[in-house]
UniProtKB/TrEMBL annotation:
Membrane-spanning parts: none
Keyword Flavoprotein listed: yes
Family label: Belongs to the NADH dehydrogenase family.
Boundaries of every FAD/NAD(P)-binding domain copy: 5-324
Species the sequence originates in: Bacillus gobiensis
GO aspect biological process, one term: aerobic electron transport chain
The name this protein goes by in its record: NADH dehydrogenase
A molecular function GO annotation: NAD(P)H dehydrogenase (quinone) activity
Length: 404
């Protein structure tokens, strides 16, 4: 009998958890499993703020996909997904196409620029390894050229971070460690450097515990970060940004603008014709798309509602990985014709945001943590995620062990 074809798109947190668990829930002769990813490596999206700032080499944030999957069971295809045809059950790739019986879409997020002029052209984002390399090098170039410039324009050393959500705050923490290093390396007085964070909401880390927000703000301000709260970025130009507060506009000049003010689901999902909200598709409790019992969507492309507040869960790696486990179980059951599909309920263990290498704020199992304790917890979380995908070998190879 022809084996059903299971195709998993994306080897991020959701996709890798799905395929590593599929080999446990689906027998050798039960299905053909294919994993597609545009690179031959997986990157830890959750560590990219470090690679972008230059506090962690980008090679520490990535590993070869084939090193963590069972290649005798999973056919890995390195290619870019260009489209999904749900009627013909086909996926088009840059270099071919694939047919599927069951599809898992785990293509992650893209920056959401809300149509703000100039952001796509002039701002950097924190979204993948290539972008991280560019941003790190761009910042270093600004420092390297400062003393050569006869005018020594200070704006060259101004770094604007748009958005004080978790990504923005974690990146600011890394910049606070990196900037003193760059000043030493390029003989620059740190007084010439400005790190400015612009946040549209009335507070940093909207919705987070106010005590932890105060801790993070005080720490970052102590390191020289200037916060402009209740201030929205309206435009990005080759010279900086235009912001608006209380109907007054202001230009802030800067050599580097980083847009960390939100994400959306992958545009491939929108183009496939699923009903979606900024590239995120509401999935049913089994993680299937309503009306398509052969298409699972997980991770940042999926939208699930928190019954407690009737709002979507924020897209996180924590949820993407847990969805991968449920998705693999459900594919196994569908292949065997069983109708007892598992319902997905996120098990939120907590949220920790790093503030550079040795500081952090977070809530873990309902308990607030700050400082070294929170920072150690953050590294434990990072190592746990490696363990879940690649076991102790991957933790030893890529784990974070510098706790103090
Ligand atoms: P991803 O892990 O992003 O993987 C998507 C994969 O699809 C990638 O391998 C990509 O290369 C591939 N891909 C994309 N498009 C194509 C295509 N067209 N063709 C082929 N392949 C493609 N969440 C937490 O829970 N905890 C944290 O501490 C945390 N920290 C974060 C820090 C930062 C700086 C950022 C940016 C995010 C952080 N998040 C965190 C959020 C978390 O990273 C995402 O929610 C998570 O990565 C989503 O997983 P995913 O599997 O949906 O997508
Ligand atoms: P976010 O949507 O959580 O935060 C974006 C911030 O940008 C918001 O505070 C918003 O008010 C602000 N903003 C929006 N438009 C603006 C404008 N025009 N000008 C100025 N500010 C503007 O996005 P994120 O921080 O990238 O996080 C994305 C997802 O990843 C979230 O679900 C988050 O929980 C997750 N994440 C988690 C961690 C962690 O757990 N440590 C770290 C990073 C990201």
């Amino acid at each position: 009998m022809k084996k059903p074809k299971v195709v998993v798109l994306g080897a991020g947190y959701g996709g890798l958890m799905t395929v590593t668990r599929l080999t446990k829930h689906v027998g050798v002769n039960e299905a053909e499993i294919t994993l597609v990813n545009k690179h031959n490596y997986h990157y830890e999206t959750t560590w990219l703020h470090e690679a972008c700032a230059g506090t962690l080499h980008h090679d520490r944030c990535r590993y070869e996909i084939k090193s963590v999957i069972n290649t005798s069971r999973i056919n890995f295809v390195q290619d870019t997904v260009t489209g999904i045809n749900i009627n013909e059950k086909k996926v088009t790739l840059s270099n071919g196409e694939l047919e599927y019986d069951y599809l898992v879409i785990a293509l992650g997020a893209m920056p959401e620029t809300f149509g703000i002029a100039g952001l796509k052209e002039y701002a950097f984002s924190i979204s993948n390894i290539n972008g991280a390399r560019q941003l790190r090098e761009h910042i270093e170039y600004q420092f390297a050229t400062f003393n050569n410039d006869a005018e020594k324009k200070k704006e060259r050393l101004s770094i604007i971070v748009g958005g004080a959500g978790f990504t923005g705050i974690e990146f600011l923490g890394e910049l606070c460690n990196r900037v003193p290093e760059l000043c030493r390396e390029y003989d620059i007085d740190q007084k010439n450097v400005r790190i400015i964070c612009v946040e549209a909401a009335p507070t940093v880390l909207p919705g987070f515990d106010p005590g932890l927000v105060d801790y993070a703000v005080n720490y970052l301000e102590g390191k020289g970060v200037e916060f402009k709260i209740g201030t929205a970025i309206k435009e990005c130009t080759p010279d900086g940004i235009i912001v608006s507060k209380d109907d007054k506009q202001e230009e802030i000049k800067a050599g580097t603008v980083v847009w960390a003010a939100g994400v959306r689901g992958n545009s491939i999902v929108e183009e496939a014709g699923f009903e979606n909200n900024r590239g995120r598709v509401k999935v049913n409790p089994h993680l299937l798309v309503e009306g398509h019992d052969d298409v699972f969507i997980i991770g940042d492309c999926s939208l699930i509602i928190n019954e407690e507040n009737n709002r979507p869960y924020p897209p996180t790696a924590q949820i993407a990985m847990q969805q991968g486990v449920t998705c693999a179980k459900n594919i196994g059951r569908l292949i065997r014709g069983q109708d007892n599909l598992e319902e997905f309920t996120p098990d939120i263990k907590g949220t920790v945001a790093s503030l550079g290498e040795h500081n952090a704020v977070g809530v873990v199992y309902g308990k607030n943590l700050t400082g070294t304790k929170a920072s150690i917890m953050k590294k434990v979380i990072d190592n746990r995620s490696l363990f879940l995908v690649g076991g102790p070998g991957l933790v030893l190879k890529k784990g974070k062990f510098k706790f103090f």
